[in-house]
Every structure is written in structure tokens, then in C-alpha cells.
């Protein structure tokens, strides 16, 4: 068991890679605090995990809210006695537009859900991890924040995801001596609602950008997150870890 008795917050757990990660982490022995906007989906996921073993609690809310970030950490303490890890994974793509056509509101929305929320999460999570003398934080960045990979109209999204790499590296430097590791995970195109699921033309276009000529399944990305949250990655901090089917090395 890779996460035996570790308590982990997973945001964006209502669908896609967050839901896959929650199930995988539970199967690896983690206690889970599940977060996302949609309470009904979280409740169903927690119930399915708890059928096997009583190890998941949930709280619906908006990651842009500092109070919500703090409440997830409080819940980890109340339900399981502390916090060992966080998969800060909630995110949105926003509208895909060339920057000259992009509304400032879209820029602001994407930055606040994808980047400011990560800042708020780290602010709430690090003191709890410090109290334990250990912790692992993972931010879901994206290949688009590193290479673009051929995706059109993603200025706001790319900037937010690149920002997560900088935030992870800075936090890694500040908190390594406290036993807290912070890494960014850069998935390639993944078959989820945000990744074009249900839109065959989008899936075909995105798959075609990857040298592997396919997209990831959510579980493949969850496995990379599991590695970063587990002690298997004990010497990794400040790393932008790429799990992208080679899209960032493709020749155009
Ligand atoms: N799917 C891809 O191709 C891909 C590739 C690279 C990175 N990512 C990133 O992976 C992460 C997970 O996305 P996914 O593909 O599983 O998509 P998804 O749409 O299935 O999941 C997104 C999750 O984020 C949550 N969320 C969104 N806004 C929120 C808010 N304001 N407050 C609380 N929760 C909120 C949603 O409720 C949902 O649970 C995102 O950060 C996304 O940017 C996705």
C-alpha cells in the first residue's frame, strides 16, 4: 500500500482525473478529504469508497474561496487527525480564444480557479503539514503550461498552468527543510469532461497531437499523482513532472 494511513485532500474529485485519483488513493490505503463544487457527485464517490472501507469524507465548495481551502484542512484534522498530502487538481479550461479576442473576465476566471486557488490551498495546507513535520503537495499543471503542444487559443490557461510550476518550485524551496515536498504534475491530453470527452472531433484532434497518437486515461494521470504523493518520490521536490504521452517533445 503506497499511501497507507496518509490523509490526502483531493480537489476536483467530482470527475475526471480527480475522481480517478480518489479511487486509486483509497485502494492504496489513503484517508481522503474530497473537494469539488458538486456535492452530489462527491457524496456518491465517498459512498462508493466507504463501501469497501470507511476512509472518505467530502465537502463541496469553491476553490477560489480561502475559507473553503481552510475548511478542507480542518476536515482532514477532525476526521483523520491531520494532513499528509494534497492533490490540488481542480481546474478549468475557460474559453479558448486568441488573446486579442479574449475577454478579461475569462483571463480572470481561469487565473483565479487554476492559480490563485493553488496559492490559497498552499496557505491553508502548509501549516497543517508543518505541524506533522512532513507533507507532499501536488498541483495539476498541464503540458500546455510548458510546451503549448499545439493547442490553439490557450493564453490564459497556459499562463495559469505555467504559474503553478513557478509556485511549486518556490514553495519547494521555502519548505523543503520542514519536510514538505511540492511538485507540479503536467499531464498530456486526458479523456475527461475538460479534456473533450463526449466530443469525438476534439478527442481525435488532441490525440493526434501526441506522438503516442492517443490521450491518457484519467487513471494513468492518477498513477503519476500517486507517485508524487507517496514516499516513492521522497527525493523529489520542485519538479515539473511530465506525464504527457510525448506531446511536449513532438516535432511540428
Ligand atoms: N483533461 C486534460 O486533457 C487535462 C490535461 C492537463 C491538465 N488538466 C488539468 O487537470 C485537472 C483536472 O481536470 P480534468 O481533466 O479531470 O477535468 P474535469 O472537468 O473532469 O474536472 C475538473 C474538476 O475541477 C472542479 N472544479 C472546477 N472549478 C472549480 C471550482 N471553482 N471550485 C471547486 N472545484 C472546481 C470540478 O468540479 C471538477 O471536479 C485540471 O486542473 C485541468 O486543468 C487536464
H and E order: EHEHEHEHEHEHHE
What is the mean predicted local confidence, pLDDT? 97
Strand order of the largest sheet: 3-2-1-4-5-6-7
How far apart lie the N and C ends? 41 Å
What gyration radius follows from the Cα positions, in whole Å? 17 Å
- Which class do the helix and strand fractions yield? alpha/beta
Range of helix content: 40-55%
- Domains (count): 1
Summarize the biggest pleated sheet: 7 strands, parallel
CATH superfamily: NAD(P)-binding Rossmann-like Domain
Q: Give the ligands present.
A: nicotinamide-adenine-dinucleotide
Number of helices: 7
Structure description:
- This protein is globular.
- The N and C termini lie far apart (41 Å).
- The chain has a single domain (7-245), classed as NAD(P)-binding Rossmann-like Domain (Rossmann fold, 3-Layer(aba) Sandwich).
- The chain contains 7 helices and 7 strands, in the order βαβαβαβαβαβααβ.
- The protein has helices at 16-27, 39-52, 66-80, 104-132, 155-175, 200-209, 218-229, and strands at residues 7-11, 31-36, 56-60, 85-88, 135-140, 180-187, 240-243.
- The structure holds nicotinamide-adenine-dinucleotide (NAD).
- Nicotinamide-adenine-dinucleotide binds next to helix 1.
What's the layout of helices and strands?
Layout: E1 7-11, H1 16-27, E2 31-36, H2 39-52, E3 56-60, H3 66-80, E4 85-88, H4 104-132, E5 135-140, H5 155-175, E6 180-187, H6 200-209, H7 218-229, E7 240-243
Helix pairs in contact: 1-7, 3-4, 4-5
Nicotinamide-adenine-dinucleotide is lined by residues 11-12, 14-18, 36-38, 62-64, 89-92, 113, 140, 142, 187, 189-190, 192-195.
